[in-house]
Design goal:
There is one protein chain. It contains 15 helices and 19 strands. By secondary structure, the chain is α/β, with parallel strands linked by helices. Strand 5 and strand 6 form a beta hairpin. The structure holds zinc ion. The site of zinc ion has 6 residues, from loops. Zinc ion binds next to loops.
Length: 433
């Protein structure tokens, strides 16, 4: 039994253990009009209590002592952006007109990457800063060799850094395998490691199997772009079509990279042997593929990138079908090469608009708890539950009432006004005048 003496200083509470004479860590309490924990129902006039950078409690508290009132905002778990490529973050707008075909878009992407503006560490830093200002506190980042490691170590957001592996030809294999091995030798408290064999048309089977084996041995996740476009499905089926023509033109094509006739299901069956997998996009997954993903939902997830999906003009995303089947789904922005910005709030609002049949609570989970689960980080982040990191996004709410509090979040264009990581403010929007 311990005897605690509680003292209030401004907005903080300090507990002093009378028996030992020692101060316990300060508790910080913040109240908002709504607290969405992503684990339980939203709490009106909820108070989030934080100690040592972790959530102590989320409750509706009558006790006014030491509570900092944030007013008409919502407190949410910091967002999990499960798929992005921050190297493209200095682009002012997506590449190509809406409805652009994937081969033409890749052509524009490569031209930009090879230009003076591309491949600069500052682009990634810009993306990290933008993410923080938009309430994102955990990233699933696809990185190139030479990625700016120091930048990830100096920001507050956490990241799963997937090293991109590309080897369409036999002569590229050894170097890609070496890069993968080297990447797995490092990690840091702010970022963890994963591998991203890029896609079926850029990764030879030997490299894919090698990455799967490394994932299993080192217990790290893989991210793999799959079933992204009709052109990809055609290439898998027949080994021909506009994507094969385009890759041949780039001299990045080797017929041995695919084994037609193939389909995404063949890849999913192989990937199921990995420790954890993020299937990026999955725009054209069929019923068999959705079933396999549902059966493996504890280790395999799909990352839906709603506004990127819209940029390419794909047919309606099978989100309700996937959710009903039990597939684990996360949300991502993808990069600014196909999305107007890195806002996860905008992605959630896009989902709420495009898929009105999906429960808004699920929409929030896609960008928080389910995203964290897809990365294997849900014991630490993704919801406001006791013991988890106090990573928070604060969103301004409209001055009206609403029957359903989720309406205030999603039927609105008000922004993120503050971001906290590990219980500390890391972004505060300038005050409105
Ligand atoms: Zn991607």
């Amino acid at each position: 039994m311990s005897f605690l003496e509680v003292s209030v200083h401004g907005n903080a509470i300090t507990e002093r253990d009378v028996q030992t004479g020692t101060n316990r860590e300060t508790i910080r309490r913040i109240r908002a009009r709504w607290v969405f924990s992503a684990a339980r129902a939203p709490v009106a006039e909820g108070v989030v209590s934080i100690r040592g950078g972790r959530i102590l409690e989320v409750a509706q508290r009558a006790d006014e002592r030491g509570v900092e009132d944030l007013g008409n905002v919502a407190i949410l778990p910091g967002f999990v952006n499960a798929h992005t490529h921050l190297e493209f973050s200095s682009l002012a707008e997506p590449l190509g007109e809406p409805g652009i075909r994937l081969p033409e878009w890749i052509r524009a992407l490569m031209a930009w990457r090879n230009s003076e503006a591309g491949l600069r560490a500052e682009n990634t830093i810009q993306g990290l800063e933008e993410s923080v200002c938009l309430g994102t506190t955990t990233l699933g980042e696809i990185a190139q060799t030479g990625w700016p490691q120091a930048a990830f170590e100096s920001v507050a957001v956490g990241a799963m850094v997937f090293l991109e592996l590309i080897a369409p030809r036999p002569e590229n294999l050894e170097m890609a395998m070496e890069q993968a091995r080297r990447h797995l030798q490092h990690s840091h408290s702010r970022w963890r490691r994963g591998l991203s064999p890029h896609a079926p048309y850029t990764v030879r089977g030997e490299l894919l199997d090698y990455a799967i084996a490394l994932s299993s041995v080192h217990r790290v996740p893989l991210a793999f772009h799959l079933a992204e476009s009709r052109e990809e499905l055609e290439l898998l089926r027949s080994g021909t079509g506009p994507l094969a023509d385009f890759l041949r033109e780039l001299e990045s094509w080797d017929p041995g990279v695919v084994a037609p006739p193939a389909r995404p299901l063949d890849y999913l069956r192989r990937l199921a042997a990995a420790d954890r997998v993020l299937v990026v996009h999955g725009n054209y997954l069929d019923d068999d593929e959705i079933e396999l993903l549902a059966e493996n939902c504890d280790r395999m997830a799909v990352v839906y990138c709603p506004r990127t999906h819209g940029h390419f003009g794909h047919p309606c995303y099978p989100l309700p079908r996937m959710l009903a089947a039990g597939v684990s789904v996360a949300l991502g922005t993808d990069s600014r090469a196909s999305s107007p910005d890195l806002s996860m709030l905008a992605e959630m609002r896009a989902v709420a608009r495009k898929h009105p049949s999906v429960d808004p609570r699920t929409v929030l989970e896609l960008a928080t708890l389910r995203g964290a689960r897809s990365l294997g980080l849900d014991r630490e982040v993704g919801s406001l539950e006791p013991g988890k990191c106090a990573d928070l996004a604060m969103v301004a709410l409209p001055d009206r009432g609403a029957k359903d509090p989720y309406e205030l979040l999603f039927d609105s264009d008000l922004p993120v006004v503050a971001t906290w990581c590990r219980g500390e403010p890391v972004y505060q929007a300038p005050a409105q005048v």
